[in-house]
Each structure stands twice: as structure tokens, then as C-alpha cells.
Amino acid sequence: MASIKTLPNDVVQLIAAGEVIDSFGAVVRELAENAIDAGATKVAIAIYPQLWKIRVIDNGCGMDLEDLELCATPHSTSKIGDRHDLANIATLGFRGEALYSIAQVANLSIASCTSGDTGHLLKAHQDQISTASLHPMAVGSIVTVDHLFANFPVRRNALPSLAQQLKNIQQIVYHLALCHPHITWQIEQNDQRWLQISGGKTASEILPQLLKTITSNDLGDRHFTAANLVGLMPESSLEIVAGLPDRCHRHQPDWIKIAVNGRIVKFPALENAVIKAFFRTLPRDRHPICFLHLQLPPEQIDWNRHPAKNEIYLQHQEQWQELIKAAIAKTLRFSEANLPQVENQRVLNLIQTAEKKGEYLVDKNTSKSEVLETPKKSALKVIGQSRNTYILTEHAEGIWLVEQHIAHERILYEKLQIAWKIVPSDELIILSDLTPKQLEQLTENIGLALESFGKNLWKIKTIPVALQSCDNLEAALLELADGGDLATAQAAIACRTAVKNGTPLDQNTMENIIEQWQQTQNPHTCPHGRPIYLSLEETSLYRFFRRHWVLGKSHGITEKSPPKNH
């Protein structure tokens, strides 16, 4: 007698439902994605953990009666129709399993209305679907799920703690908000406001709402197309929002987010590309904050890899890795786009308005052309040196203090990376008592040539060209011997050979350092992750010196009203 049997259809459906809906978070994810696919700009989610209940309200296009009656049946969807559509998916959902799977493990209620319609209500539980009834409402949908896993006590007991489930829901909403920044989200827990995310134009407006410790000034954001990123295909684009390495970073790599066509995915290869792009810009044991959003033709992606759709197959993976590194480098560099600029006409208008109100005076001899002067490409003007350590620079929006040693260190480090060269040594250099590890470091990692010169003595035959003018070459080589890889050695050489703090610099030297520093790939930090400059913006100085005061009122002077005539 055969031991292999075909499973009944109801068992097959329960198994499939268990793969799709396995937690509170899975319900929120599926319903929120349906709302996004419906074109919603506002999504409200209410969670009642103790009641095992979730409600999602959206202002999307809604469903008419015919679609409503089909939406909770298995494998029913408006998003694909044949094999060709499966290879060209442009929506978040496509399998037609979400609502049916929810109904298998909970009570499901769906109210929906399209433009010009009255609205209808439908209820479903397992394979029992009610007849839809009239339900007047605004355009959109209201989906209520309650008694979740009521018939699956083992699953209820096996779920993570409530705190973990809420954290998972928070992450799901955060990810959707980043990928779809135009949507406003309101999340309640037991009728108490929990999360509020206001919609914006780009992800750079969303990220500061999710990580309260950062502001928009801490971020660099760029949108790349084939026009401004070599190698990017014409039909593709890449959005980057990156924490500037001198201002924000994390203890863990938990805020490296990769999105593809509107969905955050797990993609270790691309995440590693991000980490490599930030190499030698962050302090030790710190990790970047970075959101990447790849937009590419649907036929280059296979979403049908995991029920949660958070893992994909991607064409041209290696090419994307290189593009990501190049795009991050461009985002972190200073350019005319991200160097401080000033909206000169707007500022002039504000000054003229304030002058008319008597709030402060403007020199009458100042011409409009002087106020409207456009900053040159080198937007930083050297105005002096402080304590033989800091180069003072001025720009259109304030003052920057640039630490001369680490700015020069960044310049030298990147030059060493581009033109690393080993040359014969012109002087006799003998090192003693080198350990096997130090010998390996100098020869294998750095590429120097050594030869035995007696017991425990080694003659250095070649040295890095950058150390030719070093005052204490033996000490420098020993420092390299104790280092790590080649990049570590290059950072050590750059640090040792850079201009020292406490050194007086003339105007020409300071201008050369500032000019070269602005052109580096990673101008925010030195190779060891220390910030290079301190920004004192005009807006901060304005507030500190209370320049919003009005002459007279700010000094306790009040104008007496003229006596009334009787």
C-alpha cells in the first residue's frame, strides 16, 4: 500500500497560510503593502495585542463590489495574470495569498469603497465568506483582523514576547516609510498614539523622524541616474541617504538598509559594498547609517524566493556592488551641491524687510551686487590660523574650523592609496629583534624588501616613498611592523608625515591644504574616523547672539502713545 498521499486542499491552504502569516508583524506587513499598492498617501494602523486584533485604514483607491468578493479567495490578485507578469512585477504584492491566508488564521473584516461608489463590507473566516453588505464610507479600505491564531494555541504560545513583536512591527513600518516617503503613517497601540511619521518628498526627510538623535544636517543624500553615475543603466536609478561619518554612526550595523523597487531586502553582498565604501571614514568599531534604494526594471529581479519577499535574485549583482561604492563616494565628497551655499536673493529680501521694520541696520554703502555675489567653486575662504592648529575658513553660511593635521592626513592617505610606491632606501636602516609576525607584516602586507644582517638584525632595502623624508625612519618602520593590512600602514604613514598641530602655517600653505582637502573622497573624517572640521553656521550664531531682537523693545525702551484728544 502506498505511503505517499496527496494532501487535502484545506490542509495545503493551512500550510501555505502558516508560511505567509506567522506573527502580528506579518499581518501588518501584508495589509500595509496592500494599502501602498492601492496608492494610499495616508495609512493608519491600530494594534490591540491583548485582543489579538489589528486594524489598517488607508485612503487608497479601494475595491468595488466584484473585487471585494474575490479578494479573500485563494490565489486571487489584481497584480498579475500570467507567467509574463510574474517576471515583470511592479507592485509589493503579487501572490494573491495575503487576505486568504489571514482569514485562515483569524477573523477578517474588509470594508472598501471606490470613487463614486457607496462602499461595501465583507467578512471571512477560513473558507466561509459572507455576502457583502452596503457600508457607506470614504474612498479607501478598512481591514480588521481579530482573534488572530485563536484556533492555533501552540502558535500563540510560541510567538516572541510582546516587546519583540512590537519592535518587529516598528521596523516594518520604518522600512515602508523609507521606501515610500510620500506616505504619512499613524500607528496606535491600544488607542494610544505610538508612532507618527509625516510624509515627505525623499527618504532624507523620513530618516530623522526614525532616528531622533540625527537631523537633516547630519545626512548626505543624492539621487543618481545614468546622467550622473557612470555605469548606471538608463532605465535604473539609485537613491542614497547616508549619515555623514563625522556626525552620525552606530555601534551595530543595524542601519545599513538596502531597498529594491520599494521594498527593503536582505542582501549581504550589497551591504558589504556599503561597509567597504565607508572604510577608513568611521571611528573604530562604529558602523555607518546608510539607506540605499535601487530602482531597476522588474525583469532584472526575481522576487519569488521567500514568502516574506525580503530575499531576491538580482541580475548584475557585481556591477551594482561597484556602483554602490562609487555612489557613496560621490555622496560623501564635498561638491557645489553640498558645500554650504546661501539663497542670496531670499536673504537679501529678508534683510531689506527687517531694515524697514527697524529690527537691525544694514550698511547703506553695501551694494546689491555684493550681497548677491555667487560663491566660487572653492567655497571655503581661509581667514587665518588659531593656536597653530586650526585653519579658520569662511563660507556663505558661517565659519568652519579645520584641524590642519587630520585634514592633511586625509589628503596624504588618499594620495597613498592612489600612488603606493616602494623605492630603494638611500640610507642604511637596521631593525633588530623583529618577530615573525612583524616580518610578515613588513614583507607580505606592506611589500618591503628585507635581508638578514646578522643575528636578529635585518637590513631594510626598500621603503615607502612617502617615508623618504621622515625624521625617524626606524621608528616609523617599527610602527608599520605592528600594524594590520596595507590600508592600516598607509593610514599610519599619512598620520606620521602630515603637518603637525602646533606648526605655524603661512597663507599659501593653509590655502593649499584646504583646497586639496575639499577634493578628497571622504573629507568628513580622517582615516581613523576623527572629524576634521567644526561647523559654526550663521543660523546658530544668529540665535546665540540673539540677532532677532528689535531695537527699543529688546533694550526695555517703549514708545509712549500720544495723549488722546478729549
What do these coordinates show?
The chain is of the alpha+beta class. 33% of the residues lie in helices and 21% in strands. Strands 1, 2, 3, 4, 5, 6, 7, 8 and 9 form a 9-stranded mixed β-sheet that branches. A 5-stranded mixed β-sheet has the order 10-11-14-12-13, with helices on both faces. The longest helix has 18 residues, at 162-179. The radius of gyration is 31 Å and the shape is elongated. The model is unreliable at 341-377 (pLDDT under 50).
CATH architecture of the largest domain: 2-Layer Sandwich
- The low-confidence runs, each spanning 5 or more residues with pLDDT under 50, are 341-377
Kindly provide the name of the CATH class of the largest domain.
Alpha Beta
The number of helical elements comes to: 18
Shape: elongated
What's the alpha carbon Rg, rounded to whole Å? 31 Å
Computed structural class? alpha+beta
Largest sheet: 9 strands, mixed
* Helical content (DSSP H or I, runs of 4+): 25-40%
Give the tally of β-strands: 25
What is the end-to-end distance?
Answer: 118 Å
CATH domain topology of the largest domain: formyl-coa transferase, domain 3
Q: Hey, roughly how much beta strand do the residues contain?
A: 15-25%
The CATH superfamily of the largest domain turns out to be: MutL, C-terminal domain, dimerisation subdomain
Mean pLDDT: 83
Tell me the count of domains.
3
